[in-house]
# Entry
Amino acid sequence: MFQALKSLVQGRSARKPSEIGQLTYAIGDIHGRRDLLRKLLDQIEDDRDGASAEYIFLGDYVDRGDDSAGVLSDLILLATRPDLQTTFLKGNHEAAMLDFLRDPAAGPEWVQYGGGETLASYGVRVPRGAEAQDLSAWSACRDSLVARMMPAHRHFLGQLSLTELRGDYRFVHAGVDPARPIEEQGEKEFLWIREAFLDSHKSLDAVIVHGHTPEDVPTSDGRRIGVDTGAYLTGRLTAVRLRGRDIDFLTT
# Structure
């Protein structure tokens, strides 16, 4: 399940040390694990000890875990806190959920990689057996989801960012294509890329902070910081703390 990549904080590249202004926490893929989200947020609260901070969530809030609806509710509530700056990025799983909301024909593919758990968290029954081949059953499933979703959840999903730049760090769900200018890239790269980004050694204009690809431990090599530690399976939800030139990890 986990890609065998080097562990923890590795040797930096020859580029100058990266820097960020505000204290920033970037949180990896939650995947419906509301219990872990709450534990990690408590850890971050203790860690920042009242200091001003920005929380950047790297996407994949839904699917696989058992409480995607609860995760979205918690994130929406977090965004209302006046003492925090919050930024939410789109992951490929949010994109898949939005595809289903637009077109129920996307349902069979979505449930293959975790959409069924998201539907269950809203109390929606997934078409099974012969029903799973019937588009009208998926249309009814989509309509049931729309009826049960709080409007705030759908609004939240529709407002997610694809990428954000802070100081020398670019935040994105999956990564970037090293062969193409950032301004020419979109959802295909930012939400889905893996090998072309992970296997490249090409210098980039910023350190990429990302999730999407589960690793046994969080990784920082001077070119990228990966914080997806497979929370839905491992029980380890990870955030990276960036302050000035310092890089540290917090994990449940």
